[in-house]
Amino acid sequence: MRYKTHIIFAILLSIIFIKILKPGNILLFLVISLIVSFLPDIDTPHSKLGRKVFFSRFLKHRGFWHSIWAVILFTFIIMLFYVGVYVVAFVVGYMSHLLIDMSTKTGISLLNPLVNDRIKGPIKTGSILEKAIFWIIFALILLVIII
Ligand SMILES: [Zn+2]
To answer: Could you give the number of structural domains in the chain?
Structure first.
């Protein structure tokens, strides 16, 4: 998925969770979620974040960093230092990335490396369908803000 689609999906999920959890600092919740939504693609030098870190070329794309284990491990590490509503922002941002990657033809293996079966969808990255999904998510954001 293109980074724009990751961003807009993270915004949608964040707004939903902001409405449910009512964090003290909405902007902080949103910023954490958006930044974290880029994190899984650190495993490819072709991503915006991966281009900035030297070790990205040594990682397996859509391997550990795109697994549920990464979410659990990083959440656990964060919770050693902080426990509160902004941990949810981290999980929402990370999971938004994994969920939208599941809708792509390449898919992700959520339980990698234990189970290598990939959860896939019909969307080709950069396709018309992805662009349509982008605008559907945009419309959903407006809807969620209004209701
Ligand atoms: Zn990804």
So the answer is: 1
pTM tops 0.85: yes
Whether the CB-CB separation of 66 and 108 falls below 8 Å is answered with yes
Given a cut of 50, the residues of the chain with pLDDT beneath it are none
Give the pLDDT of residue 60.
86
12 C-alpha to ligand 1 centroid (Å) = 17
Whole-angstrom Cα distance, residue 61 to residue 109? 11
Distance 60 CA to ligand 1 centre (A): 11
Residue 52 CA to residue 18 CA, distance in Å, equals 30
Vertex 98, ends 111 and 51: CA angle to 5°?
110
pLDDT at 48: 85
Ion ligand 1: residues, CB < 5 A: 40-41, 101
How does 110-145 read in b/e, with b if 16+ C-beta sit within 10 Å?
Answer: bebeeeeebeeeebeeeeeebeebbeebeebbeeee
Note whether 137 and 5 are within 8 A (CB).
Answer: yes
The residue segments making up the domain with residue 34 are 3-146
Note the pLDDT tens digit of each residue in 31-55. Answer: 999 999 999 999 988 888 888 888 8
